[in-house]
Every structure is written in structure tokens, then in C-alpha cells.
Amino acid sequence: MNDIVTYFSTIPSLHRSLILAGGITIFWLLENAFPLFQMKYKKWNHAGINLFFTFTTIIVNFVLAFILLQASDFAVKNNFGVLEWLPELPLWLYALIGLLLLDLIGAYLAHLVQHKTKWMWRFHLIHHTDTWIDTTTANRHHPGESVIRFVFTVAAVLISGAPMWLVFLYQSLSVVFSQFNHANISLPERLDYFISYFIVSPNMHKVHHHYVLPYTDSNYGNIFSVWDRLFGTFTILKKDKIIYGVDTHMKVSEHNKLSNLIKIPFQKAKIQPDKKI
Asked: pLDDT tens across 260-275, in order?
């Protein structure tokens, strides 16, 4: 555990980039070998759009990274945050509690709020317009949403009092888990259902990408599935019932054209009907 702390305390930017690229590569290969759905689409063209948004997310996070560093340094130096107020714990338990808190505030809460706040939803909508969910979809975030998510990450660091090694560990895990649960891979159903008690599984997250309410507003988790189960946002839908996308933007010209995706948050809002399949 001490080796993990040491590594993530000084993790080079190159290594963080390799985690991102390596995850995409591994799950991309698995998608081809064990696909959940046989989707008829131009995989490389689709990836090009999503990789564009991946790069914009990297740029936003890089430009604002100093704020995250300042937030963590402030918390640690001033004994501020939940982790700083806890009695001395075994390092593994300290890390687990920190990861849970960062995931709750920086991922689950951020995701939930974006669905419930109209102006935030208009940025997050770009992620949901994808009608071909695969591992590259994990990073399909409008630059505006990247800023919103960053604000929640800073809040998570301050509230948790997480040191930077733990923040870097969380971000690395978050990237890989997001690529995993978006990947178009088929796991044995029993295995998928079993792991969904602990972490967000591929089938669990695919329900969130079903094109109509109330399924769109469910299964918000990123790493840990406990938050959806605890707060009553966990939903099940058989995979043969799932249709990807969002019902307000099902035209190819709306969801598969980069210039339009960039402009969606500033276009006249469309209302998503509250309906079930």
C-alpha cells in the first residue's frame, strides 16, 4: 500500500496518459472479441468524435489543475475535510473511505445534479446523444461539462480532505472504470449482476444510456454502485430492451455531427418526455 502512495504521489503525466490510452486500447480490443451488441456503425469515425471530446477534457483539466492542487494542499495543511477529522486508520481503509467520498461527490452527485439542473443538462446531453455506446463514449463530454465536473471534483477534494496521491489514484481508477462500464463488452449475466453489487458493471450503466425516461435518470454511479442502491436510483432493464441515445436527439445529423454537438447547449432546449417503454 505504501508503494501505491509513493507512486501516485509523484505519478508522471506520461503515465496518466498511458492509463487513459491503454484503457481505451484494451477495451476496444475486447469489444471486437466479445461484443454486447453487434452495432452497425463506422467505429473509427465514431471514435474520432469522442476522442475530440477526450482531448478537450484533458485540456480543461490541465489548465485548471493548479486549482485542484491548491485545494488538496489547503485541506491537508489545515486539517480540513472528513479524512483529516478521522482517527488514525489503516492505510487501506483510509484510502477506501477517501475513494468512496471522492466518487460520491465528484462523480455520483455531479452526475445527478447535471440531470436535475436544466442548464447543466444541456451540456451533459452531448454524452447521452451517442447512439453507439462503446469505450470511447466514456470521455464524450462537452468542454462546458468538463468545467462543471471539475468544480465538483474540487468540492470533493475539499470536503473529503484528500491528499493529492489519493486524488490521482481516484482519477486513474475513474478513467478505467468509466471505460469499462461504457465498453460494448458482453459479460456473463450472472457475473455482471454480481459485480453490480460492488462496482458499476457494463450492463448496469447501459441502462442509464437507454433513450427514454425514467431510465436516463438512473444508475448515475461511476466506480461504486453503492450510491445508486443507497439513494434509490438503481434500475434494471434487460439488455434486449435497451436503445441507446436520448429521444430528443435521435437524428444522425444531431448526434453524429461534431459541429452540432458543440452547439447543442446553446440551441433551443428540447423537452424529454417522461415515459416508460
From this structure: 999 999 998 877 665 5
